[in-house]
# Entry
Amino acid sequence: MGQFGIGQPLRRKEDPRLLQGRGQYTDDMNVEGQFWGAFLRSPHAHADILSVDLEAARAAPGVKAVYTSADLDADGVPDMPCEVELADLAGAPMWKPMRPILARNRVRFVGECVALVVAQTQAQAREAAELIEINWSPRPSVADAQEALKPGAPLLWPELGQNVPVHWQNKPSTEADAAMAGAAWRVDVNIVNNRLVPAPMEPKAALASWDEQEGKLTLWAPTQGGRKIQANLAKRYLRIAQDKMRVISLDVGGGFGMRGQTYPEYVALVWAAKQIGGAVKWRADRTETFFSDYHGRDQVNEAQMGLDEYGRIVALKIHTLVNLGAYMAENGPRMPIEGGGRIIPCCYHVPHFYFSVKPVFTNTVSTDTYRGAGRPEANFLMERLMDAAAEATGLTRDEVRRRNFITEFPYKTPMGYVIDSGDFARGMDDAMRMAEWDTFEERRAEAYSRGYLRGIGVAAFIEAAGGRAPTEDMRVRAELDGSVTIFSGSHSHGQGHDTVFSQLVNEFLGVEPASVRLVQGDTDVTPRGSIGTFGSRSSMMGGAGIKMSCEKLVAKGVKVAAHLMQSEPDAVTFSQGVFRAGASEMSFTQVAQAAWDATRIPEGMTPGLDEGHNFQREAENFPNGCHVCEVEIDPETGIAEIVRYVAVDDCGAVLNPLIVHGQVYGGVAQGLGQAMIENALYDAEGQFVSATYMDYGMPRAHRMPFIEVGFNTVACRTNPLGVKGAGEAGACGAPPAFIGALVDALRDYGVTHMDMPATPEKIWRAIYGAQFDTQESDGIYAEVT
Amino acid sequence: MTTKVTLTVNGQERSAEVEPRTLLVELLRDQLGLTGTHVGCDTTQCGCCVIHVNDKAVKSCTMLAVQAQGSNILTIEGLAAPDGTLHPMQEAFREHHGLQCGFCTPGMVMMGVDIARRLPGADEKTVREQLEGNLCRCTGYQGIVEAILSVANPGAVKEHHHA
# Structure
């Protein structure tokens, strides 16, 4: 490994630009003469629209146009589909609703788009939107998945007759039932996996512009790639040639899985730009971003696990409810079944596995992919079961895990996925050693002497990375000036692709990272087969695409070098950026520059070293790890401080440890956020009551721990770089590690589980609950004497 | 109805016609074209818009443009030396991987400069508490805290495991 190549903690190339305020985020873009858009959104969780009066809005100062579903319908703009196909055991397909771009006759969640106002300034557009008069007829609503299953619950889709569009099962439960009946131990766990708001720091924004001369639309928006959004907008919604729609996402302020979707706002804005023949900009505020970005998690899991007398799992049954929201987002029902299903039942060998999933409609915004997309939920459930198994069998928490870890690879899971590699026991040993697990009881006793409660938790987890789409398109071009340009289908919204991909080019071509340029996020110039970044796929998919492209450049370069050095191609070697033939040598740059000169290359050869590769993966990769969390609770306040956090991850081959550590830190923080404080809360009337940063518990610096990271590297066997994803692992390990530690600290109070978020109030109640009335009275809890 | 505001921004005198309701951050971004200062919320929680007003860290979304009349403003664009040399805090953020998507970064860096100036020798706990008003969704704050500590109190930076 060279100074700048694979494995080096190269500092990021993108940083000097971003550190000086030279980022190019969507809201930084403007088009001369642009109008501004504002959406009128539903204030009701569920209501019929009896009438709409647009006259006052249309007459307001600066207003160019006001659009509703009637306008879109008149132009034949179709509704939004869900892309997931599921069936029940009898083969009956899942029932799927369509979502109107702007609500038609009825609204089904607070924040649903009803109308779009286009005006000269943002203030005028917003003020005019408030002048739209709608005669609403509110309907009963339901926001909670369990409530939505009860008889008499309000129906989101009366034509379906219930709120469950399919009951999916992996197989009948017969075998698992029989195995469970013979188990020596049975443990039950019931979990509510809390709904989260992805909340990237950049609010949602878009700028849509129609170019009359070119007959072309451009959309600037914070996406995770843009090619799929381009195709959707062009082909489905606008019915124009795909090349007549350009999507640009230069810098994006965080994605986390929910910025890859074709949101209704984007459709409405590009359509409106074409209607008015100009540009329309839209900037959501934070609350609007919370209302309209898809949410994550929101599952209810009931599970039973049976173990034999040695503490080995014999059967597992899981019943999952997933709250879809009012409509079905592009990937919505996929979360538990394919998102989590790729790894469930996680790190453990389970001979008999039964899995039942019911997606549920409620009066909430749709749920979809959020960092981990089903895998954090699956790992959390399994780790709570393993802690329960330890409690039941009397085995230690590490021993019961050790007895059930998958140890032989490749391993085919009950859901049919093949895990290529891993060493789960070594990862757990490393994490426990780094966290000084052996001496924990001394620390517990010392804390107790000060009046504090200490606990420690361990969580093993596995992830599936690479994303659903099996291909990614990359192109590498050696330029005349000696630089190299990467045209990337993968998209960085914080992951540092400019740096890591430059390291790969350095590794394979010998060109210094400073001379490598990354082009991404513009469908006019990125490769046609580009997919984007999600599911921790860029290292494997983008990385392999670069490796293969570079190999093609070298293969062609060998022919050019042989021609220039008057040798045979067979006699030319290439290593560390130098072509050699006998005593002659030429650098990659010299050969690449010469290759553009038609008079200096073999006859019939196309000038230039410019090669692309659409990489097709053989399999997904399976990152895994083990996290240990130690907490100290102040019983007076219920505040649980994380005093130690160790993360040992198997991310396969590490391309840049600085960046992989950063991914782990960020994932752990989002996982701890879910475990400690985050909760997207809808009240009984379906109002979304945590829709600002004041009300939603974002992790802040003083609640987050210093994280110690170790690597338990087992190279992936199914991709050319040996890499495994790193982006989502932290979000899988942190929730069970933290809750495990908390339960351990509170075991003397009879606590065996605590649902997330485990807020200080919840912890305090677990300690003092027996002494206090739980009846709320004006927000004050009265002591019972 | 507009009012003329004159102020010094990154060492240069600038003036603009603003509405009474124009926020300082809107003046900077929309009228003066300084888009390095970001807007991440509307409730003074996220800190993406932190700048320096008369050498103090201020959330520019929470100050009216007219209130800045005659003020000396420093934004992220004016922090590096004129020859392009990064400010030590910017350099520290790069060294310690204190940024990923970069959206919270301008506010974090401006806040970091303010913390290091007010509280030289601050420990890790203090730095974390001082960041109460700055949100980051990418980094888990680890690189940010290390970066600020490395300027405010170099001895307090924990051993770097990624070299």
In short: Chain A touches chain B through 58 residues (CB under 8 Å). Chain A has three domains: 15-21+467-616, 31-139+204-254+259-288, 296-466+619-776.
